[in-house]
Amino acid sequence: QKENTPLAQQNKQGIADRIKSLEAAHQQNRAEKLQEVRASAETKQAVKGEDQLVIAGEPGKQETQVLKKSDLPQGWIQYPLKDPQALASTVARFNDVQTKVNELADFVNKGGMEHIQPGLVGDAIAESDKELRLHAFGAEAPTARVNAILDQENYKAMNQQSRDFVRNYAFAREAMTQL
Predict the structure, then answer these.
(1) Rounded Cα distance, 11 and 126, in Å
(2) For residue 171, what are the CA distances in angstroms to 40, 41, 57, 99?
(3) Ranges 34-43, 126-135, 161-170: which has the least confidence
(4) 101 pLDDT band (50/70/90 cuts)?
(5) Phi and psi dihedrals of 166, rounded to 5?
(6) Buried b / exposed e across 2-29, counting CB within 10 Å, b at 16+?
(7) What span, in angstroms and rounded, lies between the C-alpha atoms of 115 and 151?
(8) Helix/strand/coil (H, E, C) string of the chain?
(9) Cα gap 162→152, rounded to integer Å
(10) pLDDT band at 8, cuts 50/70/90?
């Protein structure tokens, strides 16, 4: 019965009005936040569009370059780059190959080949078909362990120039086969 008193009714109405007021403020705040998020997303998209990588080239020329859209010279033709991450990964692998081949070339060009031991180096960089194999009665015995020991002993017998050549050769070969 206390709920039907004028004071209780007035309190209920005050509480209901306050709830409506808070809901309206919440809705307005939510709309403002949503508008801010949309504006931020549009700004980021615009910036991203300018930083987007494209393949570009001068009209009438065969050479192309990968450039940011914002760095594109006036009048150049542009093509969208489908997967910039894949391109970056491929470029990084090519750069790795170039670095390793340059190191090998520097070694050779600086006279490093004068003192290498060709027999030991040849054995060290030989393909697997040059490894020791043991065949008997139609079966092949595993000799990888023996080959590893022989490789280790050959490596110990090499002078520093031979080791440097083998190391540079192995790094360049590994980089090229990983393309």
Answers:
(1) 94
(2) 47, 45, 34, 10
(3) 126-135
(4) very high
(5) -60, -45
(6) eeeeeeeeeeeeeeeeeeeeeeeeeeee
(7) 20
(8) CHHHCHHHHHHHHHHHHHHHHHHHHHHHHHHHHHHHHHHHHHHHHHHHHHHCEEEEECCCCCCCEEEEHHHCCCCCEEEECCCHHHHHHHHHHHHHHHHHHHHHHHHHHCCHHHHCCHHHHHHHHCCHHHCCCEEECCEEECCHHHHHHHHHHHHHHCCHHHHHHHHHHHHHHHHHHCC
(9) 14
(10) confident
Return d(Cα 111, Cα 121) in angstroms, integer: 16
Instruction: Using alpha carbons, select from 109, 128, 111, 130 the residue that is nearest to residue 119.
Output: 130
Task: Tell the residue number behind the tokens 């079966």, with chain if given.
Answer: 139
C-alpha triplet 129, 133, 134: angle, nearest 5°: 160
pTM: 0.48
Written as one letter, the residue type at 34 is L
d(CA 76, CA 161): 50
**How is residue 18 written in tokens?**
């306050």
